[in-house]
Amino acid sequence: MENPRSYSLLALLLMSLACSCFVNPACGNAELRALMEMKSSLDPGNKYLSSWTADGDPCGGAFEGVACNEHRKVANISLQGKGLTGKVPPAVAELKCLSGLYLHYNSLSGEIPKEIANLTELTDLYLNVNNLTGSIPPEIGSMASLQVLQLCCNHLTGNIPTQMGFLKRLSVLALESNGLTGQIPASLGDLGMLKRLYLSFNQLSGPIPVRLANNPSLEVLDVQNNTLSGVVPSGLRRINEGFHFDNNPGLCGTGFSSLRACTAWDNLNINQVDPSTPNANRTAPTNVPQSATFPLACNQSDCSRSSSRLPQIGIVGGVITVTVALMVVVFVGVVRYRRRKQKVGNKSDTSDDRLSIDQVKDVYKRSPSPLVALEYSNSWNPTNAAQDCNGLCHVFLQGSKFNLEEVESATQHFSEVNLLGKSKFSAVYKGILKDGSLVAIKSINKTSCKSDEDEFMKGLSLLNSLKHENLVRLRGFCCSKARGECFLIYDFASNGNLSQYLDAEDDSCSILDWPTRVSIIHGIAKGIKYLHSNVTNKPPIVHQNISVEKVLLDQHFRPLILDSGLLKLLADDVVYSALKVSAALGYMAPEYITTGRFTEKSDVYAFGVIILQVLSGQRKLTSLMRTAAESGKLEEFVDPALEGKFSETEAARLTKIALDCTNELPDSRPSMASVVRGLNEPSCG
Length: 685
Description:
Radius of gyration: 30 Å
Number of strands: 22
Number of helices: 15
Oligomer: single chain
Strand order of the largest sheet: 1-2-3-4-5-7-9-11-13
Helix content: 25-40%
Shape: globular
Structural class: alpha/beta
């Protein structure tokens, strides 16, 4: 018999070896090697992670974006918006104590490494807004600590792994704006802590699983813009405004506004089995063609092929024939009714996706998350932070008060005829108030807003404080708890936005003459200068999202800057989405790629781009056009639709200001106060 003391000595030795990892440099070197591999893969050009050095200390504070725990183990990597262009390496799995990985809003490519599933301590995984490809590794289902998984806005394909049903602590799952196919796994209904599930703008098909709909923790389910079909489970009525299902023509159901009623044909699929789940115990029915979509009304022993089934087949055929005939009659009736009810005009839709990703409260407690933690309460109503409005929308702007009934009346209950356009986070309707004045009403869903009521109210107060002749006037707001929306009521600008007057045809009445163009440039400059100034009751504000789409024109073609301060109301993910569009259109200052920060000089850069667009009459500025502007060849740059009817001296001065404003170095750009002074100098041309 072996000596028990030997076991004690062996156990003591093993404990000593295990504990030594907290102090032994060799163990630290393993993490350092992993970080250096990550650096080579994430930043192959060594442009942004130069502070990560082979002889450095990851826990000494010198490694940008790296934070360690009390045992000097890497616990947090925060590299969002750093301009990274490489790939996520398998070496990340060597950081065993990592609990937060934030690589979102970069340009990372390649596939998500399956080795990432070895990070069993990870609670937050943010890979959204990149260029990742391939499928979602099913191994992710083993990440037992995961609470937030953000993979939206990539190019991911394939099915959603059923193994995700094992992520019992998952609270937020965001997979929207990818190319995912297949059905929604019913296993997601087993996630007892799942609050928000975002699947919009994919290619998902099939029904919404009943088990998912009955998940009591679910607060938001966004499946917009897919090809889902079948009866919407009644369990989703519970979340009401948290259920978003637009642009899934195959869905039907009762108790949901704007969802079509089901027909007998839809009901044929009502008892279909939920999509597969990791723990499914099912027996496949026998002797049923794969093409059959109707539910079996018998058990397996009664489903043999025999002559006794012929009458049943005849009955089913008769039912289908009658059903199809009824559907045709109903369809024709609905079409005629809709044509009588309202005339549907052409709508401008400037967005092909909408991001609605929320941060959740109480995640990543061991090390603070680099993002603000947000949570939408069940009793969401921002105006409660100011005072109780007894269920009505409350407005305190310029003494005006609006309630939901007034907003609905002004927009004809949000009729399509009144819809002016949509963006990534809102819809804008034309409205007529009781006094006959025209307004534009911007509707913002609560999932796109900041959830902290105090912060939301501060943002509204800021919007209310903005008063300038070149800003769109905000008349009031209305937040409806019942609809889960906030409405901003603005003055209506009758001549649309500035982008409508670019790329105009030679014979178009949309061509702006030279004095109008100069006046518009002056007005925009004065509006931005006001935003940047520090005046009574208003701190300096950086717009962050100026473009020709954000410049409206009133009946006198006076420019009015839209959405000033609006980003203060919006959730982080919606802001990221807006900024990505701005970058794609050429308004993003180059330094944002490296700093991830906006300054007043960022607005100056965007203003310079707008000047060049107005002078050239073109939305898209080519390198040849910029070369012509830099070399002073105005005849090759200024809009030919003007037919030479412009002041060359004034055009040269405006071009120089535009080039100064779009200097790559922010410190070399003028302030808006300086720009306005330059514009006001007398012209000799």
